[in-house]
Amino acid sequence: MYDFDKTLSPKDMQEFSFIPSLGIEPAQFWSEVTALAESQKMDGILTYMYMMLNKANLTGQPIRRSDFVALGKNVKLYPGVEKWFRRINEYGRQHNIEIEHFIISSGLTEIIEGTTIAGEFKKIYACKYCYNASGVAVWPATVVNYTTKTQYIFRINKGVLDENNDNDLNRYTPDQLRDIPFTNMIYIGDGLTDVPCMKLVTVNGGKSIAVYGKDSEKKKATAQQLIADHRADFIAPADYSENRELDKIVKSIIDYTEARIQMERLMKKEQPKEK
């Protein structure tokens, strides 16, 4: 499971094309988002979604679904990301582990769907707009903030991937019947906004990895603090290339998972049968 902005990509996705098209600097856009959120006591994610529509309407920028998807082609990715998924999938197959990839992001689904890696994910959980009869974005349809991200981990855990299916999500499911155990999960994020997801995964036996841009000592310090606070298990530069630190960590977790599953099967086999 991955965050997107500053985890798979070095910047917030809006900063590659959308904000420049408004004729302003990213710092100004985010400063206005913060100011509005504070003055109106708004959720920060709802605020940026509102601000995107408001600024686009003021400047005449098109905001159809296809326009947002088109922005995805300009999103830059960290080194090695494009080849990462197939390589990790193959490593999993070699170790009898089926790998599935998910996005859990506060960014926009539409923009992520336009990126070169969109097809690598079993499911993309992120914010999205609803559109009027003319196909123009008018209102947030889904908002994924830093704490609501955790519900999607439970959806993945239970195999209830449809966002509108709350009945099965909230129904009691014994651990042995859940689709993906927490112990088989890896969460990769970049900072404090990922803490709820990281903590949920780690306290239930999974592994969390905090990544950081190589050129950011501040981000590295944040990642190190996540280790000190027992919120993440590993930190690594956000380089997804083969034989880099992140690649070695994830492959080691796959090795560990394979060994643990084999051991659990052996232990179960040795248990006396009930008479």
From TrEMBL:
<dbReference type="InterPro" id="IPR036412">
    <property type="entry name" value="HAD-like_sf"/>
</dbReference>
<keyword id="KW-0378">Hydrolase</keyword>
<dbReference type="Pfam" id="PF12710">
    <property type="entry name" value="HAD"/>
</dbReference>
<dbReference type="GO" id="GO:0016787">
    <property type="term" value="F:hydrolase activity"/>
</dbReference>
<dbReference type="InterPro" id="IPR023214">
    <property type="entry name" value="HAD_sf"/>
</dbReference>
<protein>
    <submittedName>
        <fullName>Haloacid dehalogenase-like hydrolase</fullName>
    </submittedName>
</protein>
